Batch of 2 targets.
Target 1
Amino acid sequence: MNEPTIPRMRTIRCAAEELQIPENALRMWIKEGLIPAVYTGNRALVNLELLIDFLRSGRQNNGSKADSQTTKTKD
């Protein structure tokens, strides 16, 4: 039986520090819709695995939109 995996969610700052990428670049990719983010209050959380896949794909330089949408939730 496959157990569901819990995504590793990080704040923008933590994800940028952990992956050693510029925080402002990550914010721009989220704003452009290239990286999905979940908002809780005024904090954006990103799925670390999706971010790693995005960086490995090289899509950060071509400006194509991701299929996922940014989602907002209430506090």
Target 2
Amino acid sequence: MPDTHRLDSLQKSSHENYPNLTQLLRCAYRGLGADFEELVAEPEQGSEPQGQSSEKPKQASEKPKKPTHKRTGSYSQTKLLQQLGLDDTYRAVCVVLIDGMGLEQILACRAHTPFLRKQETGLIAGHTVLPSTTATALTSFTTGEFPGKTNMLGWSIYTEDGIGNLINFQNIRQAPKQWQPVPPLFAVAKEKFDIDSQVISHPRFANSGLTEAAFRGARFVGAETFADRIAAGIAHLQKGRGLAYLYWSELDHVGHERGWQSLEWANELEHVDANLRDLAAACPKDAAIILTADHGMIDVDPSQRIDLADYPTLSDSVKVIAGEGRCVQLYTQPGQAEKVVQNWKEFFGDKVLISTDPATVFRGRPTQRFTADALVFSLDRQVIVDSRIQPIGQVNLIGVHGSVTAPEVTIPMWRLA
């Protein structure tokens, strides 16, 4: 079966059998009485249009299209609401997202999570989007849309200005609001339902490109330590109204540097577990806590770290690579795409899935500024890097993510209180 068809089959199976990260925030708002199913998502004014620019404007007499998140064969939103035990009677909801805390990692490290271990009866196995990486997943989480709509297509992307970063938007000519045109649900909740939202995160993220792309419409609350963020979450649950999103990234950072199977990662997971216990203990009956993650992780096998600098045949006719080490965006010299893709298929064999159809991967046609000729998903414990253009720290990461494997895409969805 061609790789694109295999990827499409994997995606369809995922959406039919698992709740997706794109559904979760709408469920949280449903607990506050907001029903996004009745709204039609439209790009904000001044944002980049999707698809071809020749598309005719909708006539006033035309009926509005159904919301894009109502997908035939997708996991039932109603079922997810029932699994979470949410109705529309809550005063406050806090959604906690722990970066890099994949479902398979949690289950493998149960001995380090005495609090979460006691909550396992309520654990729901969910899936994130592709590529399974933070900038992409967080924006899909906050907008309820797949990357083909948000244009958040990976950690980095090659543009006319060079390799651009979708965390800080360096070398991205467009403003974050233009590059990512879908209004986050925070803004929609305020406009349509008068529900206030806040983002509790590190102060250094307050004005980042990713914050503007994914979190506009919410009030930013800066707090450095996890304990300080938990205190802000408790204050919201006990005295506030609306939704709070609480983010912690240290588990992911430790995983990148030490690997998720390291003692340091287990220690950080214990720290996360203890703080979540304190948050749940302080939650009143008219409030709710939902826990999730943006992706999981695998630890690289050093023998499977493929550096293009060491393989001239792989670099032949390749202009540049971007994206993730586990989901490489492959940009080729003009007229050389077919040759390069065939060369890579012959070299890597069954250790990769290669797609030349970004709409299949991203579940929609992304911005025309995305010009990669192929997306290369590594399997097993392989990673593809290029030490000639990438910083040494990125090249030598131990824990990585971005691909289609279960340890990377399977995430927890949990009602903690």
